Amino acid sequence: AIPLPFYTHEWETELAINFQTAFGFALEELLSSVFRGRVPVKNDDGGISIDTSMMNVVNNKEDDEDNNPLSKRDDANDDDTDNLLENNSYLKSMFDKKLLAKYQSINPDNLQLKLSVQPIESTLQSIFAVPLVTRAIVEKKPHLKGSYQRIETAFAERKSYDEVKKMTYDLAAEIGEDDAYNRTVIADALITCTEFFQLRDASSGELIHGMEDGSEPEEIVHNVRFEVITQKDEEDRTMRKVGSWKIVDLDDMLEGNIFY
């Protein structure tokens, strides 16, 4: 039987579930890094929660230790916390650096966050492959950014398959044989969560964004873009080696973070 267009294959469901799990772990590590590990981020069966009002308790305790001549602290560790987003290799394996840069300027001392996120459903919205071009290649050769967009534009304007073929061959030649077997796979997942979100000014307590205390959690759908690099297996050229999936955009903060 021929599968109908709306038929969901088993691998799509499994991939969407894996994305949901990865989203939870990534969010946990991001929050821990942004708030410098000063307050615990709880992970309860995939549900992520944090309440940074507890930072006041931690900071008061640190102040007491500062005034205690018997207390020993490593000031170098305090300096390191300022660069956790940059130096956290585990976090960088989960998020693209452009997306992490969006959180780099957050000063956790100025904000008080109450957040609980419980993923309840995930759906694979789309998945497609980009031959030849990867982010790493575009970083080495910035002029290759938007290569496929230019090919698409050329075809839309002139409807010439010969021109598209030539542009594709030129792209492969520019990339070179060593990188020609790379492929970027991009997937968009919709992850539905029940959430409570509250952001306050740490000094005044004024509500900046989100929900009042006592509000019921709301159902929120996050659009999460994942990306992975595949390479041809050197031992078996019919197979491909798959790297690790990484979040490259969240709720269109980077408008897709398109490089191709």
Task: Furnish the topology, listing elements before pairings.
Elements lengths: L9 H25 L7 E3 L2 E5 L3 H12 L8 H7 L2 H4 L1 H4 L4 H8 L6 E21 L3 H6 L6 H12 L2 H15 L6 E20 L5 E4 L7 E15 L7 E3 L3 E5 L10
Antiparallel strand pairs: 1-2, 2-3, 3-4, 4-5, 4-6, 6-7, 6-8
Helix pairs in contact: 8-9
Can you describe what's shown?
The chain has 260 residues and is of the alpha+beta class. The chain is built from nine helices and eight strands. Strands 1, 2, 3, 4, 5, 6, 7 and 8 form an eight-stranded antiparallel beta sheet that branches. The longest helix is centred in the first third of the chain and has 25 residues, at 10-34.
Task: Give a summary of the structure in a few sentences.
The chain contains 9 helices and 8 strands. The protein is of the alpha+beta class and 260 residues long.
Top keywords for this entry?
single chain, alpha+beta, elongated, eight-stranded antiparallel β-sheet, about 30% strand, about 260 residues, about 35% helix
